Amino acid sequence: MEERSVDVAVIGSGTAGLNAIGQIRRAGKSFVLINGGEPGTTCARVGCMPSKALIQVAEDYHRRMVLGKYGVDGYRALTLDGKQVMEHVQDLRDTFVDRVLGKSTDNMPQDRFIQDYARFIEPTLLAVAGQRIRARRVVIATGSRPLVPQAWQAFGERILTTDDLFELEDLPTSLAVIGLGTIGIELGQSLHRLGVEVTGFDQLTTIAGTQDPEVSASAIELMGKEFPIHLGKAVQIAEAGDKLRVTAGEHSVLVDRVLCSIGRVPNLENLGLENLGVDLDARGLPAYDPNTMQVGDLPVFLAGDVNDERQILHEAGDEGKIAGYNAARDQVTAFRRKTPLLINFCDPNICAVGRRWNDLDQAATAVGQIRMAPVGRALIMGQNKGVLRVYADQPSGLILGAEMIAPKGENLAHLLCWCIEQGLTVGQLLRMPFYHPVIEEALQAALYDLYGKLEAKNEGLTELAPITHQPTRPSR
């Protein structure tokens, strides 16, 4: 078997793998990129981008329901063509995938990009496409795939995941969404708004990854007003003629299709990780350092969704950069990870930033809150629903985190995330300019509520810093 040598072998051409390649190229090292599945990132093919395209269509169509308040006649007569919706989503999806491929693997020579599955023989020796590749270092970035219980696989095409939902030619008539995390709640709400009869199920008692009890209760209430949601019970699926019966506790529904969104599993099959010579956990993964991405003391690095930790695009990108940077150098460098940020693009957005509720020291934490009902800009938009909760260290006033269900929550969450990343206090934020009327005034109100519960106070006016050195007056 032919054997060739490179400085770095990267397995997986998704977001993490492509970011790793970028760092390796900058370091001037030789590399080979190996990809066994569909080329293109999960985000572009079956994740962030096609789902947001579907969400946008659903939001625009749903928005017609407020037109009556403005005196617009005929809005109830508007109709929607499901086939055209799916064609539009697929066209955008293909555009995003083509852009990714056009900037990456399409331009790589065959000796640099191998479209096949790799397997470890040794920590630095791979078998792929009838050859062996000896690499000084290896980056594993093989990504993840939707989890479907084996018993449900027998129902064939009637069980959907994000891998095949966006391939549908038309919208289903009825659908059960099992698993109401980010994917389930976003797509469940969107499909409901597009006219699909949707019922949601989750074995958990929360949705969209919420932890804060106030935000969780608000999320369940608001989402439950759009389509039925059943929580806290395991789900069973059974044949019922040409339909499927989905049952959880005393709740049962007949549907045409089931969207299974109960989680994702790392792509590890036939990768030969047992040949790394290190212990593997129950998922089949080796232990690694999240600040270096290094597996033990091996010249092997693990990045992106495959590590089953932060399955979010910007995190996968950062991990790919860290892994690629270290794989291209003789000395391993540890990097500080960014403030956690989670956004559900449902309506209203459900977001979490920084320290989560379950990880707070409740005795030393103050909480500020604002309900969205009286917020002027939200009221004008007809979207004054939800709640925003911000957490701070009570003695110092340092902002720790936040959770919310709020209109334009994606923007509020980013602002808070940047502030936490910069180590700002509540008092410092209240000295920032807040325009009127904007949705950020909701954040300002929550910060005022929080500020009143803190020991740390601003000198002078809360909102304005005193000038400590008076300017010298010019002589006459």
Report on the architecture of this protein.
By secondary structure, the chain is α/β, with parallel strands linked by helices. It has helices at residues 15-26, 42-46, 48-62, 82-102, 150-153, 162-165, 182-193, 213-224, 313-327, 376-381, 409-421, 426-430, 440-451, and strands at 2-11, 31-34, 113-114, 118-122, 125-128, 131-140, 144-146, 159-160, 174-178, 197-202, 229-231, 236-240, 243-248, 251-255, 257-260, 264-266, 300-302, 341-344, 349-354, 365-371, 387-393, 399-406. Strands 1, 2, 3, 4, 5, 6 and 17 form a seven-stranded mixed β-sheet that branches. The protein has a five-stranded parallel β-sheet with strand order 8-15-9-10-11. Strands 18-19-22-21-20 form a five-stranded antiparallel β-sheet, with helices on both faces. Helix 1 runs parallel beside helix 9, helix 3 runs antiparallel to helix 4 and helix 3 (48-62) runs parallel beside helix 7. The radius of gyration is 25 Å and the shape is globular.
Task: Put the structure in a nutshell.
The chain has helices at residues 15-26, 42-46, 48-62, 82-102, 150-153, 162-165, 182-193, 213-224, 313-327, 376-381, 409-421, 426-430, 440-451, and strands at residues 2-11, 31-34, 113-114, 118-122, 125-128, 131-140, 144-146, 159-160, 174-178, 197-202, 229-231, 236-240, 243-248, 251-255, 257-260, 264-266, 300-302, 341-344, 349-354, 365-371, 387-393, 399-406. By secondary structure, the protein is α/β, with parallel strands linked by helices.
